[in-house]
Amino acid sequence: MTSSAITASGLRKSYGDKVVLDGIDLDVPAGSIFALLGPNGAGKTTAVNVLTTLLAMDGGTARVAGHDVVTETRKVRSAIGVTGQFAAVDELLTGRENLRLMADLYHLKDHGVIEDLLRRFDLLEAADMRAVAYSGGMRRKLDLAMTLVGRPRIIFLDEPTTGLDPRSRRTMWTIVRELVADGMTIFLTTQYLEEADQLADRIAVLDQGRLVAEGTPDQLKRHIPGGHVQLRFASAAELGAAARVLTGSTPDEEGLVLRVPSDGGNKSLRSLLDRLDEYAIDVEEFTVHLPDLDDVFLALTGHSSTQEVAAP
Amino acid sequence: MSSDTLIMLRRNVKHTRRNPVTLFNAIFMPIIMMLMFVYVFGGAFDVGGGDYVDYATPGMLMLAITYGLSATAVSVSSDMTKGIINRFKVMDVSRGAVLTGHVVSTVVRTAFSVTAIIGIALLFGFRPNGSVVDWLAAIGVLLLVIIAVSWLTVAFGLGARSVEAAGFLAVPLIMLPFFSSAIVPADKMGPGIREFAQYQPFTSIIESVRGFLTGAPNLGQTLAAIAWSLAIAVFGYVWARSQFGKRA
Question: pTM value?
Fold first, then answer.
């Protein structure tokens, strides 16, 4: 047995002369959450499609659950579950019928799993409504429940919360954590740094088909200068005083705001506040800005994520 | 039929029952066309003696077959664009089952509309002279045609970029019977159209069925009908399978 759930080396995929994946190496330990972070068009969905046997790769090798995705597709398929970017539920069937369809296709004799999943995902009340009437959050939950009917060991979640409201997003996060607690491995793609940070054990940043960084959320954030503390003062005198004692800060005289680079951690914040105390400087307002995806991109690639060209 | 195909068939039958547009296009539209042509316009057509209903019924059967096809194209395309097919593909469902399920449910649905048309034709005075063997032969030809155009339509549905485009791709198939000997004999049409109507596949199919139902089997047209159907079926099947494998 290998302790890697997913490994890939030198994955390449092009559409015509457009290179979508340009040599990707991955190693996802079993039982962990791995996040592939990147903007639209970075190649996230293509990576998922290649790893889940939907697309043939042009070069490289990949093993999922210990099986080669090219030569042992059936074994790979029986070990994985995939929930794509758009909830792939059958709209003309009810929630229960959708799950039933999956159970039939997996040739499950016992249909107890259907009721369990409906209960677990809080879909019992809506179970006999056609999925076309479901809200976005309910569809995603049903989609994921359908994926779980076959009890996969490895789950691919392609942007599981894109387009969801904040509450449904939190619910989804809780569900994902529970899945890992049950021993599953999660391969997640997302455009939100916060989501990767909240969920993932390891994050890889994908930009224009290449991995530009990989590590734990903490390792990654350490490289990112985007995090800062913003201090607002009542007078220009106080702003000036603070700017003198806090090294590396950038004052904005008009807004009476001072920007101080920070990782947002409690130690650095305490020392910052201590220093202001020491010089008896009053702060009107204090806000911590954590780096977002745009900061990550700027730091790692020198261009912003929104400048990407649109792609599949 | 594999158990996966049966599961898919059951799913598609549920879809048809729950989708009023499908039922309307596939079952009621051909009946309405039948009533229009036979009851409303029929008296004005000169088809060279005999009752118009006797002439028109084989053509109406062809219309009943093609009218349901847009529903199939739309349903396949919607499976494709909404990610359902990808879900099945990563589940190790037998490769052909998704597509075969669509073909079989189209055949079943079309069998209903064809039966309805025959029933209404008989009500309107259709008096076929074919023997039981002729009827079986006619049913055989129709079944082959239905399977052939179903595979072609499934391929259209898989290839379409959107559900709307899929519905549109089926339109030429729906229009083709009008430019065949379905409504009036080809030799009464204008030049250009006449030659097209004489040699297009649906004319052979309709003439073959007409021959059997009137008790005067037309061997040449039947062979042509079988050849056309096999060609369409093989082309549709190969095209559908290749797209199913390629597109993600």
Answer: 0.81
Q: Render B104-155 in DSSP notation, one character per residue.
A: HHHHHHHHHHHHHHHHHHHHTT------HHHHHHHHHHHHHHHHHHHHHHHH
Report the CATH number at residue A168.
3.40.50.300
A310 domain-assigned: no
d(CA A144, CA A183) in angstroms, rounded, equals 16
The tens digit of pLDDT for each residue in B162-173 reads 999 998 888 888
Q: Does A146 touch chain B (CB under 8 A)?
A: yes
- What is the rounded CA–CA span in Å between residue B103 and residue B67? 15
Encoded tokens for B79: 């499976």
Answer yes or no: do B90 and A80 touch at CB < 8 A.
Answer: yes
CA proximity to A226, closest of A262, A267, A271, A190: A262
Higher confidence at residue A37 or residue A310?
A37
Q: Is A296 inside any structural domain? A: no
Q: How far is CA B186 from CA A214, A268, B121, B177, B207, in A?
A: 71, 89, 22, 11, 11
Helix/strand/coil percent split, chain A, to 5: 35, 25, 35
The verdict on a CB contact (< 8 Å) between A97 and B14 is yes
Instruction: Give domain status of residue A303, yes or no.
Output: no
Q: Which of A15, A80, A86, A101 to mutate to test the interface with B (most CBs of B within 10 A)?
A: A101
Shared domain for A212 and A132, answered yes or no, is: yes
- A298 lies in some domain: no
CA-closest candidate to residue B231, choices B139, B146, B143, B148? B148
Q: What is the ipTM of this complex?
A: 0.84
Q: Which one of B3, B7, B14 has the shortest CB-CB distance to A92? A: B14
Assess whether A154 and A69 both reside in one domain: yes
